[in-house]
Amino acid sequence: ALAAPGCSLLSRTPLPQVLASRAPLPKPYGVPLPLPVTARPARSDATTDYYELVQREADAQILPGLRTRVWGYDGRFPGPTIRARSGRRTVVRVTNALGAPTVTHLHGGHTPPESDGYPTDLVGPGGHRDYAFPLDQRAATLWYHDHRMDYTGPQVWRGLAGFFLVGDEEEAALPLPSGERDIPLMICDRSFGADGSMPYPASPEGPGAREAFMGGVLGDVILVNGAPWPSLGVDRARYRFRLLNASNARVYELALAPAGRLVRVGGDGGLLAAPRPADRVRLAPGERADVVVDFAAHRVGEHVELRNLLGEGPQARVMRFTVERDARDDSAIPATLSRVEPLDPARAAVTRDFEFSSGSMNGHNGWLINGKPFDARRVDARPKLGQVEVWRLTSDVAHPVHLHLSPFQVLSVGGERPAGPPEWKDTVELREAQTVEIVTRFTGYRGRYVMHCHNLEHEDMAMMSTFEVV
Ligand code: C2O
Ligand code: CU
Ligand code: CU
After folding, report:
1. Which option is the CATH number for 179-326: 3.90.70.10, 3.40.50.1820, 2.40.30.170, 2.60.40.420?
2. How close is the Cα of 107 to the center of ligand 2, in Å?
3. Which ipTM was obtained for this model?
4. Does any ligand 1 atom lie closer than 6 A to the CB of residue 288?
5. Nearest C-alpha to atom 3 of ligand 1 is from which residue?
6. Which of 221, 169, 227, 308 is nearest to 30 (CA)?
């Protein structure tokens, strides 16, 4: 069944059993890990690569022997991976061949407002739009996905998401695992009907449905790159995995079994200053982590599982690696990866407070920021271009909060400084009843952007706010 996420509000709410009959859960580790195709530019000139993606329906084989209708960029779920270069302009023409309006957002992009996918900048069926990304930003694991107001949850659920990897010279010069040992892993959960269909569980408009959606939509099958609990054969060597939590609402705490080290080298906003070994990596919806795993610690023939410590039963599994062969490995994890200048909160011209809470509007329960639901006609903050600001985010239940345009550093979590040197992020998880302070500097572009909860059902239930850089 659609289980309740770790949200106290939802656990009091009965959930609708919307799938009349469910497909049996596929056998874990029964299918190979797919790698998303790499998009090829339609053309390139001295400054710019031009891509063309068509959003369309397609039949995918996700569960063995069954067909699943998806909405995909180029009919693929995940969409093609765009591999771009820092400082090189990338223009993506997205054509909408679906029956519903869409708008595409580059998550983590430092993007001018007209290309940022504001939730009402919709493209109707048959239309297209050119999104221009200057990419004046450092190497990082970004992703693109649909951002239609009120419908991001269902449209991403159906498959409208893909990787967008930005590289730069600093990163290319590092001896980190690369090529076939640099693998993006898009993790998300879905549920399937007996016929293989992947319906969004209910319509947010149906009677009582809004309340049942309060915690967000969870699936019972964990997909990695669109395949259920896949497996990957690996060399006895180091691999870099670019982990993305593309789930609507599920939070993961990823760990290896047997226990092993995940060395985190990057986050939302690119490389860390120095590697951080960990035995687990927590990812709320929208967050990324680049980790290096060294399979030389295992013998040929051994299995290593990637597990979710927050999941139960089948949902505690994610994927499995099988160590297949000895191999040469020239990679290394350097002690210094990059420079991350701490952004000094003493330079902040303004401190703003944002309170994330549930509330009632027009007799419906919804999610609010500072007591208000999203309204595209209203601007809630006007930071000045170039200005440093501290934003204090407070929550009732857990919310992964995402800021467009402006990468930030976390100053405090529940009153405490986070461990380790600062890193650049674009999404931060507020745990239940917690205050998180972030510091950011608004650079590059004036215009309208959003901040919102990246639990996509919360976002669709209006937990979003517009800020305008002036
Ligand atoms: Cu990944 Cu505004 O979203
Ligand atoms: Cu974003
Ligand atoms: Cu939320």
Report:
1. 2.60.40.420
2. 3
3. 0.98
4. no
5. 107
6. 227
